[in-house]
Design brief:
The structure holds two protein chains of two kinds. Chain A has a domain at 20-54. Chain A is built from one helix and no strands. Chain A has one helix at residues 20-52. In chain A, 2% of the residues are buried. Chain B has 15 helices and no strands. Chain B has helices at residues 2-13, 18-24, 27-43, 50-74, 76-79, 97-118, 121-142, 149-158, 160-169, 174-197, 199-205, 210-214, 216-239, 245-267, 271-308. The relative contact order of chain B is 0.11. Classes of the chains: A mainly alpha, B mainly alpha. Chain A binds chain B through residues 16, 18-19, 21-22, 25-26, 28-29, 31-32, 43-44, 46-47, 50-51, and chain B through 9, 12-18, 21, 49, 51-52, 55, 114, 117-118.
């Protein structure tokens, strides 16, 4: 399905064309992944502060 | 090479939403794991940081969910054959087996490593062993080969209180082992009541459940025998002195009702009434375990809250 429209790059034959349903669910999955990563940031931040104490924020050696 | 390309195409073209992946984690089993692991955690005679305790509990739940996803990956062929499981994400084609495998493996590794950081290495190893036991020992090995499948495999479902206790203390205790024993002994009557109701389904899928292999009469007897052992062990936390009199009374009353249900399953073995008896035992078994652990959590939760302030 090579695309000959000048404004878009030519895509190779094996590229997939996603249906609206596929695009929608991919977006939902990506949002879920973003939330999971955000949760991980909070998890590791909180655990670091609790385990090492607030002193960890002072820095230095 | 082609594996990577496949995964790419599948991942892009999939219509699976986050809810489908959540379903792979067996949310109902996961909530039971949170419940029992919390009981084990509260049992620990140590000061717990509430944030670390909550994160540990969540990671134990994710580990349990990951083993559920791996179970669904491996069992997709037989899940398709049973109405109870045919609606799961892989048999219905919403999620590809390779995706479930990757999802389950990544979450297993993540939950174990993170638990090592949040709690301790011993708890992480206990969680890893639980996942291994459920996926490899139960799902891959025992489930399709012996009618003792759920007896031995039940250990996987019984480990969470010990994992919870390990997360809190870095070790295990006899009291956490008693909680393990309660769930371990509860599993056969609970599951065989279901097996009596669904024996045709299990036979169709070729799973050697007790009623299909040893017959219904033998299954009814074994349900009764396991119930007779379960009920005193259910009372044990009070007898051994680590649970209150309230727990003792509750466990005796619920235990007596459990025995009544089990005796009914044993004696009523024909037609519709037999089906009703099995259904009642199955439903009551869930209530039994839920109430016992809820009492435990309420009781120890107060002590925990008191220690916080």
């Amino acid at each position: 399905m090579a695309n000959n429209n000048d404004s878009t790059p030519v895509v190779p034959d094996r590229a997939l064309t996603l249906t609206p349903a596929q695009l929608k669910s991919r977006r939902a999955r990506n949002v879920a992944l973003a939330l999971a990563i955000g949760f991980l940031v909070i998890l590791f931040y909180a655990v670091t502060i609790i385990k090492l104490g607030p002193g960890v924020l002072k820095g230095g050696v | 090479m082609s594996f990577a390309a496949d995964i790419d195409d599948i991942a892009m073209a999939s219509e699976a939403g986050p809810g489908d992946y959540f379903e792979l984690l067996k949310p109902r089993v996961m909530s039971l794991v949170v419940f029992t692991a919390l009981a084990g955690m509260l049992l620990a005679p140590v000061h717990l940081n509430p944030v670390l305790a909550a994160f540990s509990l969540l990671l134990i739940a994710i580990g349990a969910g990951a083993s559920g996803a791996l179970n669904m990956w491996y069992d997709a062929d037989i899940d398709l054959l049973m109405t109870r499981t045919a609606g799961r994400p892989i048999p219905t084609g919403r999620i590809q087996p390779k995706e479930a495998l990757a999802f389950g493996l990544i979450l297993s590794i993540f939950s174990v490593c993170a638990l090592a950081l949040v709690a301790n290495v011993f708890a992480a190893l206990a969680l890893a062993f639980t996942i291994f036991f459920y996926v490899v020992v139960y799902t891959m090995w025992l489930k399709r080969s012996t009618p003792q499948n759920i007896v031995i495999g039940g250990a996987a479902g019984a480990f969470p209180p010990m994992v919870g206790y390990a997360a809190a203390t870095g070790s295990v205790s006899f009291s956490s082992f008693v909680l393990f024993a309660i769930i371990f002994l509860w599993t056969p009557p609970h599951f065989w009541a279901l097996a009596l109701l669904k024996s045709k389904e299990f036979a169709k899928a070729g799973i050697p459940m007790m009623p299909n292999v040893k017959g219904e009469a033998h299954t009814r007897l074994e349900i009764l025998l396991y119930s007779l052992v379960l009920v005193p062990v259910g009372v044990a936390p009070w007898l051994l002195g680590f649970a209150s009199l309230t727990y003792g009374i509750l466990s005796i009353v619920l235990g007596a009702l459990f025995l009544v249900a089990a005796i009914r399953v044993y004696r009523i073995d024909q037609g519709k009434p037999a089906e009703v008896a099995a259904k009642q035992l199955f439903a009551f078994s869930i209530l039994y375990l839920t109430l016992l652990f809820a009492e435990f959590i309420a009781e120890f939760g107060f002590g925990f809250a008191a220690r916080l302030f």
